[in-house]
Design goal:
heterodimer, A: about 110 residues, mainly alpha, Cytochrome Bc1 Complex, Chain D, domain 2, about 65% helix, B: about 425 residues, alpha/beta, FAD/NAD(P)-binding domain, 2 domains, five-stranded parallel sheet, four-stranded parallel sheet, 25 strands, about 30% helix, globular, binds flavin-adenine dinucleotide
């Protein structure tokens, strides 16, 4: 019984670390909890129920799409004074954490 | 031994880390947070503490009204861009979705030493941490001749409630070609561009129904928020209708007379057919009662929004001295998230992240002519420090102004669902 438990625990840990490694490669420094915390800043304007007019829904967004958009605001390729300001103070860890959290949120 | 499935194994792990991170809390007794005021600051704080603690913190929100009518977008109601019902919100979502315990009563006093809030009914609520976000109270006697009785004759409409309906009736009922006099408040006050957006929306109303009407603004200040943008818009949309008179020009409002509707200044005596007077402001009374004020407003610790006078009390929104943030709903919402994270951290051991603050204020000048101003802030030991910002430009093209207006509608929908659902 005990050895079975240890065996399954190891399997689970392996599964987990594999997952983390995979995410790590794509999203350096991404942390779901940090992303959730940071998203508090987004939902002041981006309606969490997706009913907002004039401001798009961002939850459920693909990580690559989200990152591309934020970077375009950061480099001021994409226009919008509010979003340029928001993107301006987001570093890589913040952007990746947000991407991770938002992609996994409805 | 019961069979351990993957789910129960993970569950046990989660339960044990939670227990370890809450060393000081006895089993069964949840830490208690009481929030006074269910507006932009208080409703947001109550929601985020309840939502993110997932039942590990007991949250009680003490709010006098069952329905919160936002001051934001009340100007759009004056201009017929919104109806009154659309700016009213209830607290069911906070109770049902997040388990916030709603108490619709007036908090009459706070005893910080005993950590108790006394309610109008005589009941008391105890807290481990208290959040105070009561908004503003008006200093009626800051304008000689103005009083609580006079507010029905010259509505201030600067607090949530029926005042704005009264003001709208008076604007719509004003005699043809009459004069509307507006007295904006002196600094600091809630919503720096608010009085000027109001002037724009009243002008918009007059343009439709009373095009020969005049608006005279007797300002106790010499400049105001987004001044260039508003002035440009007034010239463009309402030429000749609005006369803004600075403090240096009129020399000070000596006295107002609510029966003759006269405004006496050094320059002249102005006679109104309808008027709005917005007096000076101070933190909501309960903050003074709790002893967390220094003069009219409440000093806070920038990194957490804790009162400088009592570490178990947090003061949010208009009542706080959150320099350099303006007193706005957006600011209050932003501050509430910083405080909620800090409170939850200190009660449950959850992670406390570096504080980040932001604000953007949109204003509507005329149909599809929106403007905005915003900034990011971080916490310095002595103040909330502006790190970057932007403002709409004069002469912007009409597509951008329309997009800015549409963005403000999205923001309203976003912030109100963030507060209440
Ligand atoms: C005309 C106008 C336009 C505005 N436009 C904008 C805008 O476009 N954007 C923006 O961001 N901001 C805007 N604002 C500013 C915004 O409304 C305030 O800054 C914001 O509401 C402040 O939030 P708060 O939590 O400090 O107070 P409030 O939102 O005023 O909430 C305080 C709450 O506390 C309750 N309360 C007070 N004392 C007690 C007590 N003792 N017991 C129980 N309950 C109590 C009150 O009933 C109230 O519901 C505008 C304001 C005005 C007047």
């Amino acid at each position: 019984m005990k050895s079975k438990f240890v065996f399954f625990s190891i399997i689970i840990l392996l599964l987990f670390s594999n997952k983390i490694l995979a995410d790590d490669k794509a999203l350096a420094g991404a942390d779901f909890e940090y992303g959730q915390h940071l998203s508090g800043e987004c939902v002041t304007c981006h309606n969490s129920t997706g009913l907002g007019q004039g401001i798009p829904k961002i939850t459920g967004m693909n990580t690559a799409v989200f990152i591309k958009k934020i970077l375009a605001y950061k480099t001021k390729e994409k226009d919008n004074a509010v979003m340029q300001m928001v993107a301006d103070r987001l570093g890589e860890e913040e952007i990746n954490s947000l991407a991770l959290y938002l992609s996994k949120t409805k | 031994m019961a069979k351990i499935t993957r789910r129960s194994f993970v569950g046990i792990m989660a339960a044990s880390t939670t227990a370890l991170s809450m060393p000081s809390i006895a089993f069964g007794a949840l830490p208690r947070v009481v929030v006074i005021g269910g507006g932009a600051g208080g409703a947001t704080a109550a929601k985020y503490i309840a939502k993110d603690s997932k039942g590990a913190v007991d949250v009680t929100l003490v709010e006098a009204s069952k329905r919160y009518y936002t001051c934001f977008f009340s100007n759009l109601y004056l201009g017929d861009f919104r109806n009154y019902g659309s700016i009213g919100h209830n607290y069911y979502g906070l109770a049902v979705n997040h388990g916030v315990n709603m108490v619709h009563e007036w908090a009459s006093s706070v005893n910080g030493a005993e950590k108790k809030v006394y309610l109008g009914s005589g009941a008391t609520v105890s807290y481990d941490k208290l959040v105070i976000s009561p908004g503003i109270d008006l200093k009626f006697n800051s304008v000689n001749g103005y009083s609580p009785e006079a507010q029905s004759i010259m509505p201030h409409a600067w607090k949530s409630g029926t005042q704005v309906q009264l003001l709208k009736n008076q604007v719509k009922g004003m005699k043809k070609g009459g004069t509307f006099v507006m007295v904006p408040p002196p600094n600091p006050y809630r919503c720096p561009p608010g009085p000027y957006e109001r002037i724009s929306m009243i002008a918009h109303q007059f343009k439709k129904t009373n095009p020969t009407a005049k608006i005279v603004v007797l300002d106790p200040k010499n400049k105001f928020s987004k001044q260039g943008l508003f002035m440009e818009g007034w010239q463009k949309h309402y030429p000749g209708m609005i006369e803004w008179i600075s403090a240096d020009t009129h020399g000070g409002i000596k006295k107002i007379n609510t029966s003759t509707m006269e405004f006496e200044t050094d320059l002249d005596t102005f006679k109104a057919d309808a008027a709005s007077v917005i007096p000076a402001q101070q933190a909501g009374r309960i903050a003074m009662n709790a002893g967390v004020n220094k003069g009219d407003w409440c000093p806070i610790v920038p990194a957490s929004m804790q009162s400088q006078a009592d570490e178990n009390i947090y003061v949010l929104g208009d009542a706080s001295i959150a320099k350099s943030m303006p007193k706005s709903g957006f600011s209050a919402n932003s501050q509430a998230k910083v405080a909620a994270n800090h409170i939850r951290g200190s009660l449950t051991g959850s992670k406390v992240f570096a504080p980040r603050f932001a604000n953007t204020c949109w204003s509507l000048v005329a149909t599809n002519d929106g403007i905005k101003v915003g900034a990011n802030y971080d916490a310095k030991p002595d103040k909330i420090n502006k790190t970057s910002g932007f403002i709409s430009k004069t002469g912007e093209d009409s597509n951008l102004r329309k997009a800015t207006y549409e963005e403000s509608i999205g923001w309203y929908s976003g912030i109100t669902s963030d507060m209440f659902s």
